C-alpha cells in the first residue's frame, strides 16, 4: 500500500491491483485550511454516509466504490476501496437555497455562476428551482471561483458539461427529496466526477455529506437569518468569531465546539439513514 496524497481531510493510498484507498480522517477543514483539532468519529460518519448515498444513487450514475469492507483493518469504517478516476477539473455544485458564497454572489450581482435569480431574495430563501453553480478546482487565488456554464463548456466540452449539470441536479433533487422526508433540508451540495479507464463518467469523492453539503433542520428553517447547521458551517461560524484571519495555521477548536460538531454530524447521519450511530 503506497501513500500517494494527503488532502485537507482525506488521504489516498494506491493498493495492489491499481485500486485506490480513500481514507476519511477526523480532520476538519474550513476556508481551505485544515484545523489542528480533530472531530472524533467524523471520518467514519462521512465515509458511511457517503457509502449509503452512493448505493442509493447507483441507478442515477456509476460511482467509484469497489468495496466498503475490503479495506485494511486499521481503516475499517472510514475507508473505501475505489476505482481510480481521471477527475474533471470542475466542482459541480447544486443549490436549492440561498446561502454561503452563493448568497454573497447573489447580493453583489443578482446572479450565481451567471444564473440570474429573482430580486429581493433573503438569506436562506428557497430558490424557484435548483440551479447548477459550478466552480473551479484550481485558481490563482487558491480558492474555488464561480464559473459560468459557458466557461465550463469551454473547459471540458459541451456534451460533458451538459451531462455534469444534468447529473448534479438529479442527484441533488433525489437526495433533497429523501432528506425532506426525514426533516432535513439539503440547501446545497458539491459533487465531483471523473472518467474511469473505460471513459465512463463516474461519481467520485464523497456525496451528500456534512462536509460537502449544507444540512438544515426543516422545523427550524426561517429565511432572513443564518440557519442551524448540521454541517461544518457550524465550525466556520465559530472560527470567524475567534478573529482568525483564515490563513494557516488555524486555531485549536475548544472541547465544547468539538462535541457540538460531533453531535450535529451524528444527528444528520441518523436522520438521513435511519440508523443509530454507535460511537467509536
TrEMBL record:
- What superkingdom does the record give? Bacteria
Q: In which pathway does it act?
A: Purine metabolism; IMP biosynthesis via de novo pathway; 5-amino-1-(5-phospho-D-ribosyl)imidazole-4-carboxamide from 5-amino-1-(5-phospho-D-ribosyl)imidazole-4-carboxylate: step 1/2
Give a yes or no for keyword Nucleotide-binding in this entry.
yes
Reaction catalysed?
5-amino-1-(5-phospho-D-ribosyl)imidazole-4-carboxylate + L-aspartate + ATP = (2S)-2-[5-amino-1-(5-phospho-beta-D-ribosyl)imidazole-4-carboxamido]succinate + ADP + phosphate + 2 H(+)
Instruction: Tell me the enzyme class.
Output: ligase
Domain SAICAR synthetase/ADE2 N-terminal residue range list: 4-247
A single GO molecular function term of this UniProt record? phosphoribosylaminoimidazolesuccinocarboxamide synthase activity
Per UniProt, which keywords does this protein have?
ATP-binding, Ligase, Nucleotide-binding, Purine biosynthesis
E.C. number(s) listed in UniProt:
6.3.2.6
Instruction: Spell out the Pfam families in the cross-references.
Output: SAICAR_synt (PF01259)
NCBIfam families assigned to the protein according to its UniProt record, in alphabetical order: PRK13961.1 (NF010568), purC (TIGR00081)
Report the sequence similarity comment from the record: Belongs to the SAICAR synthetase family.
Q: Could you tell me what this protein is called?
A: Phosphoribosylaminoimidazole-succinocarboxamide synthase
Which gene name belongs to this protein? purC
Amino acid at each position: 500500500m503506497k501513500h500517494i496524497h494527503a488532502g485537507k481531510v482525506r488521504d489516498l493510498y494506491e493498493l495492489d491491483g491499481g485500486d485506490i484507498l480513500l481514507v476519511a480522517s477526523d480532520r476538519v477543514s474550513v476556508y481551505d485550511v485544515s484545523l489542528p483539532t480533530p472531530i472524533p468519529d467524523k471520518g467514519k460518519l462521512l465515509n458511511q454516509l457517503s457509502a449509503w448515498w452512493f448505493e442509493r444513487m447507483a441507478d442515477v450514475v456509476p460511482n467509484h466504490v469497489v468495496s466498503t469492507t475490503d479495506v485494511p483493518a486499521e481503516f475499517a469504517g472510514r475507508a473505501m476501496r475505489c476505482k481510480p478516476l481521471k477527475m474533471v477539473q470542475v466542482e459541480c455544485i447544486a443549490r436549492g437555497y440561498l446561502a454561503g458564497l452563493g448568497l454573497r454572489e447573489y447580493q453583489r450581482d443578482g446572479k450565481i455562476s451567471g444564473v440570474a435569480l429573482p430580486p429581493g431574495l433573503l438569506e436562506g430563501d428557497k430558490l424557484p428551482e435548483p440551479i447548477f453553480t459550478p466552480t473551479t478546482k484550481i485558481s490563482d487565488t487558491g480558492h474555488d471561483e464561480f464559473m459560468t456554464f459557458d466557461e465550463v463548456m469551454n473547459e471540458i466540452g459541451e456534451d460533458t458539461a451538459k451531462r455534469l449539470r444534468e447529473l448534479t441536479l438529479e442527484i441533488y433533487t433525489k437526495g433533497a427529496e429523501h432528506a425532506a422526508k426525514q426533516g432535513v433540508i439539503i440547501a446545497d451540495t458539491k459533487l465531483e466526477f471523473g472518467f474511469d479507464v473505460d471513459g465512463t463518467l463516474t461519481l467520485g469523492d464523497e456525496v451528500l455529506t456534512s462536509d460537502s453539503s449544507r444540512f438544515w433542520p426543516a422545523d427550524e428553517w426561517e429565511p432572513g437569518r443564518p440557519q442551524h447547521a448540521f454541517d461544518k458551517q457550524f465550525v466556520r461560524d465559530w472560527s470567524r468569531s475567534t478573529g482568525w484571519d483564515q490563513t494557516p495555521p488555524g486555531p485549536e477548536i475548544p472541547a465544547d465546539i468539538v462535541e457540538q460538531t460531533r453531535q450535529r454530524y451524528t444527528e444528520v447521519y441518523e436522520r438521513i439513514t435511519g440508523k443509530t450511530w454507535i460511537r467509536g
